[in-house]
């Protein structure tokens, strides 16, 4: 059946089920069924290639046995089906025994079902949905690949489902970052808050182009690593990996921040880190205690930065999406983190992104920070960064803001690509020679230190501002005012010292 | 506080001897003055100075503006000068005297920037003219200042400008050794000196330098080495003050912009249904839409509405970029309101233009125009305030920049007006850079409007007004 109708058909069927309240639950419901269907398809491959393949799933719970409708009228439906799913399938899968020796591809069945939910209340409708899903012919390479894209569409829908949207970074961005970081065969990348696996799949797509031999293909399959704390996106990420032929995906269902950062060894480090950490979270002491005291912020995004700094291999490359608050924030932990970044890493590029990229989930302003674990040759004493380039990506022509119907596309990143290899400062002045706007500038590390690590440079002109919801508007206002107050206080205290006061 | 206030405060400290410590080993200013007097006597003997310039007007107790350290002295500015002169009079230099290429530069206030003479764009005169203006030739270490306009402009003449001319807007002087010129510039820039000059300056619209005033100016004179120390300290401080100034300006801008941004943000919350909670007991908006449809059909029958404008087409959820609250319906403005020209009529009536409606003038009477009734709503479609809605207080003609606005009576009018208000910015910009802002009808009609249940419309408006009352 046409894949384009896939999502619509399911939506129409589920609309009539009293148990599904809203888009978020609908997507959760589809997710576990898709996982089982995709997994079943994978098992076909494994059976074909291995003589002794035994499924980790008990026979009566395998999709091919309970879900398939062969048209003879014998398939379970209505109350029988509902009873089976609620009282046999789910409990069995949740209780599967996983030991340290269980292979990843088997373990993921249990970890995926751990907190999965079955919402539907109508067995007949459930049968209809199962049939729609079963009609996907994932054995066909083309269809499987095309489905990967439908899956992306489902994930994208989550963005508009409100709070579930926090796990999804627009693919235009993840593709751009994966491409510009230049993956190489043999390298290992990590995303410590991988959500639905966007950065990982973008990395795989970019790396795929460089695979030439069978050995390369093996390296390719082992090149990714992810950690996701929340059950639901974890499930989606694992399914996503299977769809990308990563059979034993190293995706951990865990809290990245719950280990002492100082305990990481070289084996825990990666060549590349690509990620978009969660913002606005507030961590308690039981998490903060895993971080050195001077760097232990209560803000989740800050702690992720420290984590990355401890898990990036020497000469490793990182690209991280962070909110404006990190750039101009002046609380003690942020200052310490930013200073440590400049001293021990090469922060070579900061890209300012237009607001509304994460629309409609949030209108927050974000930025990409690129840094490498290396020391630039002629950096000043005590620093690894010599200079940082700033570039502001303006809204594309004809766009007032991005939205569900007009999202960011890969080509919108082209101005960054054009500027990347031949970097020039772009400054506009008026007739009197006064600077009117700075779109791109290079700041020496000494200048950044003098500005008290205020990375809020090459800002967007006021006119381009999004209308933020009050909560975000006020939070932004307070952060900025605090940052400016701090700058002013620093300046005045220097002046006071000189005055001998 | 701002940077200017801080600068003034620091300069004041400087000229009162409180910025840097006094050093008892420094040669006191009194001794310095004695040396200056000896030098003046020598110059008088050589005929280079007039005898009367050897003395200066005595300083009265009550003239002294503030206390200065022991080692300092008060002295009148004229006493320290060997030259003290205005530039040439306007009659001495005419437009025709200026040459384009080679010539002798004339220094006027516009050529003075940041304590230096700037050569770019400077006017020049011919050799012949230069000879005529012999008494206005500048020498190295002269001080040249503005004698009109911005009286704080002052510059030291360097080797490079030696031999240039003082222009018609300039004033120049030369000090004897003993006054460190950069210290004088600090003093000249201080509030003490500038307010002294401005308070009593002669001239109506433009400030003018009063020569007599300047020559009598009471100058606090520190020991020579202390003058240098003061200048060094100021040079350390001023860049910091400037940086502080920029940061303060940014903060002020941030604070100024907050109320408007907050209002805009609240309006957005309101019209997207996030400002007040929904009440599932209220009649859903879909019912409202049905009644609006009937209302429009009735108007078509009465011929006040064209048939093509009678439709009411709710938008689907996937056409909206955010979650639709329960009980709401989404339509476009064209479904619920209409712009029209009003009836053309003749007869004497007041013309209601924006000024009249704001109470700024009594109305003009016209004999014909586009008629509206008392209570009709009219909206501005041209000019700065395009998108603003007024209610006609009387029967009369609409101003030429207005159109009549019909809004379905099934809706709570203030709610719809709030929506239109929040889009005012978008409506005004029909073309970027258009000379006159203009309400773009297509944009207007296509605006997506969230319609809540009727009582929720009222609750939203009440909340908005409450919040706006607090913001001010």
Low-confidence stretches of chain A are: none
- Summed over residues and divided by their number, the pLDDT of chain A gives a mean of 87
Rough outline of chain A: elongated
How many β-strand runs of chain B?
A: 21
Give a quick account of the main beta sheet of chain A: strands, pairing sense, barrel closure: 10 strands, mixed
Structural class of chain A: alpha/beta
Strand content of chain B: 15-25%
Description:
The complex is a heterodimer of chains A (501) and B (472). Chain A has 501 residues and is of the alpha/beta class. Helices cover 44% and strands 13% of the residues of chain A. Chain A is elongated, with a radius of gyration of 25 Å. The mean pLDDT of chain A is 87. By secondary structure, chain B is of the alpha+beta class. In chain B, strand 5 (112-113) and strand 6 form a beta hairpin. The longest helix of chain B has 48 residues, at 224-271. Chain B is elongated. Chain B starts with a helix and ends with a helix. The model of chain B has no long low-confidence stretch (mean pLDDT 87). At the A-B interface, helix 18 of A face helix 1 and helix 7 of B.
Summary of the model, kept short:
The complex is a heterodimer of chains A (501) and B (472). Chain A is of the alpha/beta class and 501 residues long.
Summarize the helices and strands and which ones pair or pack.
The complex is a heterodimer of chains A (501) and B (472).
Chain A: H1 4-14, H2 23-49, H3 63-66, H4 78-94, H5 104-113, H6 123-134, H7 141-160, H8 171-180, E1 189-191, H9 198-208, H10 214-221, E2 224-228, H11 231-243, E3 251-253, E4 270-275, H12 285-288, H13 300-311, E5 312-323, H14 324-328, H15 332-344, E6 346-352, E7 366-372, E8 387-392, H16 414-420, E9 426-429, E10 435-444, H17 445-450, H18 470-499
Parallel strand pairs in A: 1-2, 1-4, 2-3, 4-5, 6-8
Antiparallel strand pairs in A: 5-7, 6-7, 8-10, 9-10
Helix pairs in contact in A: 1-6, 2-6, 2-11, 4-6, 5-11, 8-9, 13-15
Chain B: H1 3-15, H2 29-45, E1 73-76, E2 81-86, E3 98-99, E4 104-107, E5 112-113, E6 116-117, E7 124-125, H3 127-132, E8 142-146, E9 154-156, E10 165-166, E11 170-175, H4 181-189, H5 191-199, H6 211-216, E12 218-221, H7 224-271, H8 285-301, E13 329-332, H9 333-336, E14 337-340, E15 343-352, H10 354-357, E16 364-372, E17 377-380, E18 389-391, E19 396-398, E20 402-407, H11 413-422, H12 424-428, H13 441-446, E21 448-451, H14 454-471
Parallel strand pairs in B: 4-10, 15-19
Antiparallel strand pairs in B: 1-12, 2-11, 3-7, 4-7, 5-6, 8-9, 8-11, 13-21, 14-20, 15-16, 16-19, 17-18, 17-20
